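anyone seen this seq b4? input:
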Amino acid sequence: MDWRSLRPEKASPLPLYYQLAERIQERVRTGEIAPGERLPSERELAEWVDISRMTVRQALAYLVREGVLVVRHGVGTFVAEPKRAYDALHLLGFTEETTRHGETVGTRVLEQSVTEPSRAVAAGLELLPGEPVVKIVRLRAAGDQPILLESSCLPAARCPGLEDADLASNSLYALLEARYGVRLQGARQTIEATIANEYECGLLAIQSGTPLLRVEGVAYVEGDRPVEHFTAAYRADRFKLSLESRRDRDGSAVATHQVGALAFD
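predicted toks r here
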């Protein structure tokens, strides 16, 4: 592309770095600059758009923080892969969502055993004291890139033998439905932005301080009976949520649909 077309308007009240950043982001959004494409060096870009190298550096740093660009040290600055947008109004498993995007699912099972749940998990699943759960911890990947660390706890009495099932190559939700007649109807969950800890950084192949979307909640079947307590850490540089809001018919209030797509299996 002609990088000179990104030249900011010096008479504009908007900062030069911001104008440049917006123009680069727009080219990325339209596909004129493709994911994985390497940008010119700071020096080259500064010459072509007729602004200082420091201003170019400020614009690129801004886009890196926004997740539009990524820096590969010693190599250059590249357009980041687009974030995965999920319809947060439908409860789909990770396997379903990933294959829907045309990508290969990868799963590494880190833990799969019958254990005593924590108080929070037992309360969420409405279990009596001493009732065990099957705990499943998995690292999920799209292609060869790890993007999600998740933990699921299900009542052991509801799904006997689940601790021995092959969950490295099979969908948990599909198995629950086929083997145990458990068909999830929805989920109640919370989402918060956090920073990856050392353990998560190692598994997700990310740097210390990388932001995550941390999700915790309970999935339920018909009659609001809870069957899965889950926690998940999503790479925030690879995920974004898709939500829809509707106004009540009388226009007096705004009703927002609750998130339900992040309990991936």
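The helical segments are 16-30, 42-49, 53-65, 94-100, 119-124, 172-180, 198-204. The mean pLDDT is 84. kinda curious what u guys think
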